[in-house]
Design goal:
By secondary structure, the chain is an alpha/beta fold. It contains 20 helices and 19 strands. Helices cover 35% and strands 15% of the residues. It has a 5-stranded mixed sheet with strand order 3-2-4-15-7. A 4-stranded mixed sheet has the order 9-12-8-13. It has a two-stranded parallel ribbon with strand order 1-18. Strand 2, helix 3 and strand 3 form a beta-alpha-beta unit. Helix 11 packs antiparallel against helix 12 and helix 19 packs antiparallel against helix 20. InterPro entries: Bact_solute-bd_prot1 (IPR050490), SBP (IPR006059), TAT_signal (IPR006311). This is Aldouronate transport system substrate-binding protein. It is found in: Cell envelope. It comes from Streptomyces achromogenes.
Amino acid sequence: MTPNAASASSGPSRRSFLASTAVATAAVAGGMPLLAACGGSDGDSREGTTAGKAAKKILPAFVAAGVVTPDIPSKNGSAVGFTGKLDLATLKTSVPKKLGKGGKVTVMSPFWGSPPKGDNPYYTAMNSLTGVDVVWQNQDGNTYDQKLGAVLASSNVPDVVVVPGWNMGGKIPSAILSKFADLGPYLSGDKVKEYPNLAAIPTDAWQRAIFGGKLRGLPMPSSYVPNIVPFYRKDLFEKHGYEVPKTTDEFTALAKEITNAKAKVWACGDMKWTAFNSFGVPSGQEKPLGWILQDDKLVYRVELDAYLEALEWSRKLFAAGYVHPDFKLGKSQAVDPSTKFAAGEFLIYNNDISSWYGQQASQATQNPDFQIWGMDIFGNGDADPVIYATQPANIFAFVNKKASESVIRDVLAVANVTAAPYGTKEYMLTNYGVEGTHYTVKDGVPVKNDKGNQEVANAFIMIASPAATIAHPDFPDIAKGQVEWQQRMGAFTKKSAFYGMQITEPTRWTNLSNDFEQLEDDIVRGRKKISDMQQAVADWKKKGGDQLRDWYRKVLDDNGPAAS
């Protein structure tokens, strides 16, 4: 891809998540377990989930894309990889016939940065390719939840509204059911074959697009293997003879060896996110994934002994002075470590997988010795890491319930273009813009110019995206490294009980777990104690955690757990 470094952070920021899913969306093709419906016989419940025979009737047929053959096939749920140079003359065509009928479609979507003018060459070219006049109503991604709530509460809803999973709190799930159309009549079963690129989106991702018993969303597939990688300075490791750790104890010993505060060198950043994977703690980013089965008992992540052990291990790194002082400030996600990591002030940190390429590309000319690499997630003691899969889709585009059939079909025409696979003309235009205007190709490497960076950004990819792909023609070794890291880590990755399910919690418990993340950050920095977390968990159970467990147990009993 182009050398545009993703926003760096020590945790999974929303923007880096977008960069990761748009550039390297890894999802498992097919195979979502067909589960039984929950929450009402009409299949349109506002709480619970929809699966089983009801889901089978709703889901689009899966037809693998045969347009392009990847250099590295998927394994253990990894993305597919492309390591060759790009030849524009040999790009395939995945949409031979323009499906749009020339209608106008308004789209509201989050945007990070300054949105381009509506008549820019990128938007004009995409509209020409799709046959649809798409008019963008871009909103600040950092405050998108506020705008989203206001728009959905009004009677003036655009034709298409993009909703990221992290903005689905409060009344948003209810609004999705009342404001947006059922796309099943156009996409369920073999109907999707009219849109071949949509048919190639993995079934798991479509399963996540079922809201209230209806196929309402167009998904952006995301990775099966969690996207947080423990990165390290490979060049400095080789220079000093450091060994990549294989256990949490080895990591601690290495951190002690590296740290020399007087020389302004520290071992690492906040390693909390890696610790959760090392100790076998499911993610807290998506609430259903935080629930796992232990001896047939449903347990939430904060109740696990491993949860406290991971926090304690992370706390000790801070307490021993192995963590760069910048990470002691505020929340872990608020730190931008890219400059000081590049300067060698610390040698290890965890970040979104997109930073692997982004960091290397940004340092390529000014620091030619710089080499970032991803270490395998290490286990605790003699145990292997226990990694829980991420949801197969977490950003969705919805169509207004009041939209006419012609508008819906125009939206699907656009989505069929934006979901085109890597190696096609449609993918290049969607992701790079117009050759000569937005990018140039030199020695098989497409490079965006300033205009491309400004105009070709988080717009059309939000309507729909292809399945898992990683490709960096300018850094093929990193593309190969990313895919192979996913393949190795995929061997330790398993599905939690509610993997792939789109679950709407009762609103009375929506905010029950909101304070845990801040408390985690306070504990690892020594501002709070492990006992404070134990008290918080006890309070959580009393305030509704135990009732929420019973509610999730009913969902599980009615549906069965996700297949491993």
